[in-house]
Amino acid sequence: MKEFDKIDDFDLLSGIDEDSKTKIGKESLEAQPPQNLQIVIRVLEGKEKGMDFQVKDSPTFIGRDRLAGVPISDPKVSRQHATIFFEKSQFNLKDLGSTNGTFLNGNQITETLLKDGDMLQIGDTICQVMIQSTPQSPRK
Fold it and tell me: How many of the other CB atoms lie within 10 Å of CB of 95?
């Protein structure tokens, strides 16, 4: 696909299949959050329990794929299960057509806005979403 030639130069997305890139959309692949804003995904239940994953780039994939920014080894999680992306000044979560679905605060979603404190479930893995803002140093 021509529209994705530009991003294939980046290691972050080079192993992501074209179908997943298409599901996200070109605008979401290009938007980046401000440097002082990030999401932390804290695993509360599952094989990765106790682990924190920092999401600084957009998009960041969640799944069993070795290139996932949030790698989850749960067998009920698809290889490229869902993605977190930054668009229109907010973080969003999108299911990528996973077999077992993506749930936010107990509701199955296809795409939704993420908020601080949201509870994310994929497979048998439960995570808490923490949106963090760090103060920027003043410019000199």
Answer: 22
pLDDT in single tens digits along all 140 residues of the chain: 333 333 333 344 444 455 554 544 444 445 665 667 789 999 999 999 999 999 878 899 999 998 899 999 999 999 999 999 988 888 999 999 999 999 999 999 999 999 999 999 999 999 999 998 776 555 55
98 neighbors 81 (Cβ within 8 angstroms)? yes
Of the candidates 58, 57, 54, 40, the one whose C-alpha atom is nearest the C-alpha of residue 118 is 40
Q: Is the dihedral of CA 108, 76, 71, 45 positive or negative?
A: positive
How far is it, in rounded angstroms, from Cα 87 to Cα 23?
14
Q: Give the predicted TM-score (pTM) of the model.
A: 0.73
Nearest 10 degrees: CA dihedral of 135, 68, 102, 25? 80
